[in-house]
Queue: 4 jobs
Job 1
Amino acid sequence: MQDADLFRILGNPSRLAILGWLKDPRAHFLPQVDGDLVEDGVCGQRIADKLGISASTLSEHMRQLVGAGLVGQKRIKQWTFYKRNDARLAEIAALVATL
């Protein structure tokens, strides 16, 4: 992925909000029945509800975040859970520091 594509992905307010919420999921989401908020990630439906968007719109946002390596995904039952990839975000911070 080219740097310009990465910054385009990060330039979307909804995707930035998602990354911010996933940094401290317990502060932004109620406990889940399936999956631990920190260990397993946040259920995609909860993220969609918080943003006030449809599941298909969230799916597109998450496809881009996962594709850029910014977020990992995990299936539990019929749900997809998302968790920040802090190592990848640290790489991007180092990249920005070189500019």
Note: Helices lie at 3-10, 13-23, 25-28, 44-51, 55-67, 86-98.
Job 2
Amino acid sequence: MTAILKNFIGGEWVDGSGVTKNINPSNTNDLVGEYARADKAQTEKAIAAAKAAFPAWAHSTPQQRYDALNKISLEIIARKEELGRLLAREEGKTLPEGIGEVARAGQIFAFFAGEALRLIGEKGASVRPGLDVELTREPVGIIGMITPWNFPIAIPAWKIAPALCYGNTVVFKPAELVPGSAHALSEIITRSGIPAGVFNLVIGSGSVVGQTLLEHPDVAAISFTGSVQTGRKIAQACVLSNPMKKFQLEMGGKNPLVVLDDADLKTAVEVAVNGAYFSTGQRCTASSRLIVTEGIHDRFVAVVAERLKGLIVDDALKAGVHIGPVVDQSQLDQDLRYIKVGQDEGAKLAWGGELLKRETPGHYLQPALFTEANNNMRIAREEIFGPVAAVIRAKNYDEALAISNDTEFGLASGICTSSLKYASHYKRNSESGMVMVNLPTAGVDYHVPFGGRKGSSYGAREQGSYAREFYTTVKTAYTYPG
């Protein structure tokens, strides 16, 4: 009988009020594990534990925080193959992608271990004679973290690491689809030497655990990554709470990749296929709109279609697989609905979009390529979050840029060109938080800011030194020496 893996509250592993079953999307007969489901009362206990632990942790030394974060980093990296296999098994991204994500999580903890020692403050003279002014940063308090299923260890890492680095305490609610990676990461954190209550894991539904975090007056801030609809609800709840909560939202994307006539065709095709389809297209930074100018359009479409025919879609753990399964039946159904929507709207399904059968029952879908799309179609305006991309023809660079910016989202964008003029202009004028030149839109470094504009993001950036803007609050202190 499979042991039910527990939640972590106040320094102890505790049973839940129910069970979450973790199913392998590459083989739906494979039960990855069973995990305790937290209820409202247990979430409240986790918040109480975080509150009790906050004063001491907020005043802990930089060395203490460095030691804990560094220890977490070292164990994650030492176990990256094992944890990468678990991640691929439960989420469906390929094994190399899973191992790469785990390594990134380890690097994130290493970065913030260093940040704990890089103290930032200012001291200056007042405009009034004889006074000194000091600007210092202090932790915010209890941070409620709500994370998605598509990056089940990297996204929790880039929220938890800075929170602990700057002296906050954490109540962590991972996505129910991927409790395995969250639980494994939590086990590593519990062995780091941090005091009881500083970090708490509560696996459960958004309607129960998430809502409790939003409603509880002791939770000072919410860091959320997920859908636009849920993000808007979180923003409203944080504003209406008493006291108001600080909040940070990373939401959707409908990211454009512009391909100009002067682009290197081979590079452009690889950039497009990687950005749109790898990780099964289940990335908020995926380039699902391929905006291609007329001179290269037909050649680009033909080579992309040929490239897609050569991609292997299969069990995420098999060697040589390019694309794993869709994460679950609900997401697969959504992908299929959008494929039908695209056809009904008049776009041409140039390749793929068919369900696939493999040795084991799983959520396998051919990558889908639409052509003859326009930017008014739903498949070009709404986030699908699957291996589906639409090619939009543009007359020239100016029209391509206009189409690129014509979206409610603004997370990532890209351009393929050999022109320094167009590359420079696009970087300045693309209405997105992150811009790539001759690179996939999906794929960012861990030591620089991550985030977007418009409907994609709200609040301070994540990752890098900019994370301190969310996880700290500024204090201004005046001193009269007398």
Note: DSSP finds 15 helices and 23 strands in the chain.
Job 3
Amino acid sequence: MGYDTTAYDDVEPRAPGMYFLRDALDCESLGVTVVEADDGWEGMEHDHADADHEEVYVLLHGAATLTVDGEAVELGPGDAVRVDADSTRDLAFSADGSRMVIAGAP
């Protein structure tokens, strides 16, 4: 079969509101995460330099701030941001019912 399917909310969250789909979709290189968050949800500053993974963040609903190398990028529904592997990033949501998709790969 040339494809795999899943529903993100059928995947056990690895952190509150974070659904990692790589294993469920049997991805070899691509990581895909769905985040459901309310106002006040905050991630941890990190980078992906060791794995050489760039990431794309797409906000589907709500409001978020993605801080990249210390610079705050405000996101509204439909906004997308690509982040270099060696750049630090930190994500925070400022609206209840926010939903985002994050994809990353080398």
Note: The mean pLDDT is 96.
Job 4
Amino acid sequence: MTHTTTALRPPRRSSQRAARRAPRRRPRRAPWTPRLRDDRGSATAEYAVVILAAVAFAGVLVAVMRSGEVQAMLSDLVRGALSL
């Protein structure tokens, strides 16, 4: 018959501490809160905003370049540069 004594067993300090600790309670949060923390796809959204801003700027630039006053100024500038 084999007899084991308690002196041969390793101490159970970690489990004793865990038993004494009260379980932590998480605060209740709204169901959409984890989705707000998730930043997957944020780079894609930022690129989309930048592309939309670039397209809007290009549209404004085309509208300005097509105006008669700007075309006249540019043609005068080119004629002046070529005549030097």
Note: Helices lie at 13-20, 33-37, 42-65, 68-83.
